[in-house]
Each structure stands twice: as structure tokens, then as C-alpha cells.
Design goal:
Blueprint lengths: L2 E11 L9 E6 L6 H8 L22 H6 L6 E7 H13 L9 H15 L3 E10 L2
Antiparallel strand pairs: 1-2, 1-4, 3-4
Helix pairs in contact: 1-3, 3-4
Length: about 140
Amino acid sequence: MGTDMVGPFVEMHDSAERTLRAWDMVGQFWFVRDYGLFALMAGVRRNEERPVMYEPRGMPPDVGRLVGYELRPSSVWNPSWLNTWEARAVAASYFRHREGPVRVPMQLRVVLATMKAIERYGRAARIVFAFDDDG
């Protein structure tokens, strides 16, 4: 039995000040099973060799309707979210805690590029995700 990430979903808010109500889903991405990355992002599958940067925060109270439906509590566990700065910090830490010629996973780099593009237009971005077990 293994643990997989559900999402992550990139959400965008219409203004960096969040004066409008809704976050909207921009896209859903897929991350390969990477327990080192999961530990950094939300403390999932942590151990002595896998540092934790962010504990699970739960579902954002203002989560967009589509993402809220996809990550409904009956189907996933440990929902959490990261803003762009935090996701960049995860990528930097991931690189530092690996040995050999390991690079930040391409999927995370694509998510970060998407978030950066959103913010370039003056909007706020975040990734929202959760986990499930196969079996």
C-alpha cells in the first residue's frame, strides 16, 4: 500500500489583496509518488531522513468550489495548501536534502512556473492538495 497526492490543484484569486470572494481552479497536476516531497509539503510519510517544512493545514476555508469537491473529506486525508513562496521553499529544500544528481521534480517545477505566471499578472496563487492510499 502506498500514499499518493491528490492534486495538486493550482488556484488563482482575482486580486493579490483577495478582495473578491472566490478562488478559481487553474489546473490539476499530477505528482509522482515521492515521499521526500510529501514530507516537506505536509509531513506525510515523514521519518528521520525526510524533513518536514509544513504541517498539514487542512482545507483552506475559502477553497474554490471545484477543488473543494475534488478534495471532499470522504475521499482524502491531510488536505493542505501552500502559497508560491512556500512552494519555492519546498523546491529549494528538496534539492538540498537529496544526494547525487537529483533535481527538483519536473511536476513541481511546472506548478511553480504556473504560479509565477499567475502572480506576474497581479493575482494570488496557491496549490491545494491532499493524500490518499491505494490498496
